[in-house]
Amino acid sequence: SRMLLSYLPDSEIEAYLTSAAPLDQFDDIFPDMGVTTAESVWNDIHTMRGTEYVTWQSPKLYGAAYVAFPIPGADGRLHGIVTVGGPMERFDPEATVAQSAIRSAIAQLQQHCVVFTPAPIVISGRMQP
What tens digit of pLDDT does each residue of 2-39 get? Predict the structure, then answer.
């Protein structure tokens, strides 16, 4: 997830992008994934950094819509993300964010998880702090 990447330092993102190259290697298998270039990843990362949540829609005609919430740890790195989604014709991510039950549950999870430091990340065989 680009949201997960957005919480990493730029040097770690660059290391990931280098190790994952070529980014379009699965376009034949997953043709609806959208633009997969390093530039598109960086653009998305810069847009996502510091946001409370991210919404997006599948590019397929009968695809799905999603909202993702970051779950940061004590040091600012992520434990993970919580994603809620459904069919585009029946699911509105912005309305979902506005629902107090979901926002309350996410806020409680974020409050509990911010006390703990996330596990280290391993990129290209090297453990990152």
Answer: 888 898 899 989 988 888 776 766 666 555 555 577 88
* Residue type present at position 72: P
Q: Give the side-chain half-sphere CA count within 13 A for 11.
A: 2
Residue 100 belongs to what H/E stretch?
A: helix 100-113
8 A C-beta contact, residue 4 and residue 121: no
d(CA 21, CA 10): 16
pLDDT digits (tens, 9 = 90+) for 76-85: 888 999 999 9
Return d(Cα 125, Cα 110) in angstroms, integer: 29
When computed from its CA atoms, the radius of gyration of the chain, rounded to whole angstroms, is: 16
Distance CA(28)–CA(53), nearest Å, equals 30
AA letter at 31:
P
Contact 129, 76 (CB under 8 A): no
